[in-house]
Amino acid sequence: MKVYKFGGASVKEAAGVRNLVEIARQTEGRLFIVVSAMGKTTNALEKVMESFWNGRTGEAVVAMQGVVDYHAEILADLWGEPHLPARVRGFYEELEEIITLANPKSRTYEEWYDRIVSFGELISTSIVSDYLTRAGVESEWLDMRRLFLTSNRFRDANIDIEASTPRLRRAVEYATARVIVGQGFIGATEQGATTTIGREGSDYSAAVAGYILDAESVSIWKDVEGILNGDPKQFENVTYIPELTYLDAIELAYSGAQIIHPKTIKPLQNKSIPLYVRCFVNPSLPGSVIKAEIEKPIDTPILILKKNQILLSIKPEDYSFILEERMAEVFAILERHRAKVHLVQNSAISMALCIDSTRYLAEIVEALHEAGFTVKYNTDMELLTIRGYRHEHLAEFVEAENVYMTQRSRKVLRIIRKTNGDF
Ligand code: ASP
Ligand code: MG
To answer: What is the model's pLDDT at position 254?
Structure first.
């Protein structure tokens, strides 16, 4: 059994879906395919959610129509005429019923978010599975909401691997088709409420499926030739890295490299399942592989830029930071508001933290005030991490005007700076 994951960009148009079909056709043996929402559908559904949540039904309906039209175009291209698979029609009806009839205040924001946004994956997988079969690659569609049991932390749910194992194994055993298609990114609680596992989480879904099914490998199909030492949209002269260890990959993902979701590596490492990053536009390229041992350690510096950051500067009003419990208090507040912390730097009486931008910033600041801290913050920041930095990077990046803070170890240089639109 192999696991393949196709991200939104790789199925953003009909050509990508055809490509997926060819890749599946040419792969021998059983195949479990994890698919994300097509193109920017998740963002579009987030807009549907915002309008719905704010009681602007008309706006939500218009936003949903955009999603329907986008998929209709892909379907018409694939089938050579307008076509709507029955399952997709059912999902449209369900979504429409929610946005026109449901009372947003009957559930939390997060719970509605997961209900609404999950349609992206439900629709994309239905289209892919339907088209695979039409193209002569017999496939079976699985509803991952019945197979991945998660915690009820909506928008950031954890997959309960142990509880999901018998469910997924059984579903795959019973499936008669060679190719199985399931959604990335989604699952459900024990009570059956739909959950999502965090933006860009489909890689993690694929890794968990690989782990549970004891896959021989997991491959993530991307629009790049493999793993590069920087995002070509942000940096010049990037080069390709053929092999990485699990540890390299975890560090990269943790620093914000977009190539793989940070949680992806652990399940694979635990069973020594290699992870391939392959180029879907040119499947004959070898891509990159992440595995336990590699022949040659990486010798190029790796640059990772994490955007949409907030720099928080926190001081206790009573000069008490020397006590660890004050720090614990700060982290408890951040955890409660689901802040994702990427860098911490502290002195005797102050603490600076770099966190992902969040809709709960006002609440975080308020809670910190109440706990007796003075808080300052800067928004529109970004975190640049350079692993294996060279001397010239210091001159190029540290001395720049927009730099607010730096942190440096022997191997890693991290810079928090104002986003100034230079990239
Ligand atoms: N569709 C989801 C997102 O865009 C999950 C994923 O792509 O991995 O965040
Ligand atoms: Mg996506």
So the answer is: 75
Q: What are the tens digits of pLDDT across the range 111-148? A: 999 999 999 999 999 999 999 999 999 999 999 999 99
Distance 40 CA to ligand 1 centre (A): 9
Whether CATH 3.40.1160.10 fits 2-291: yes
pLDDT at site 250: 86
Average pLDDT value for the chain: 94
Which atom of ligand 1 is found nearest the CA of 203? 8
Give a three-class secondary structure readout of 55-116: CCHHHHHHHHHHHHHHHHHHHHHHHCCCCCCHHHHHHHHHHHHHHHHCCHHHCCHHHHHHHH
Q: Is the CB of 16 under 6 A from ligand 1?
A: no
Instruction: Give nearest CA residue, ligand 1 atom 5.
Output: 200
Indicate the domain borders of the chain.
2-291, 302-418
Residue 42 beta carbon below 6 angstroms from any ligand 1 atom: yes
For residue 185, the ligand closest to its alpha carbon is 1
Q: Is the CB of 8 under 6 A from ligand 1?
A: yes
Q: Is 39 in the pocket of ligand 1 (CB under 6 A)?
A: no
Q: Which ligand is nearest to the CA of 43?
A: 1
Same fold, 2-291 and 302-418: no
Alpha-carbon distances, residue 340 vs 7, 205, 256, 353, 354 (angstroms): 23, 20, 12, 10, 8
193 C-alpha to ligand 1 centroid (Å): 19
Half-sphere exposure at residue 73, Cβ-oriented, CA atoms within 13 angstroms:
11
302-418 fold: VC0802-like (3.30.2130)
The ligand minimizing its distance to the Cα of 117 is: 1
Taking the centre of ligand 1 as the mean of its atom positions, its distance from the CA of residue 246, in whole angstroms, is 22
Do strands 243-245 and 288-291 pair parallel, antiparallel, or not at all (unpaired)? parallel
pLDDT single digits (tens) 369-409? 999 999 999 999 999 999 999 998 998 899 889 999 999 99
In the prediction, which pLDDT does 421 show? 56
Tell me, using a 6 A CB cutoff, whether residue 38 lines ligand 1.
no
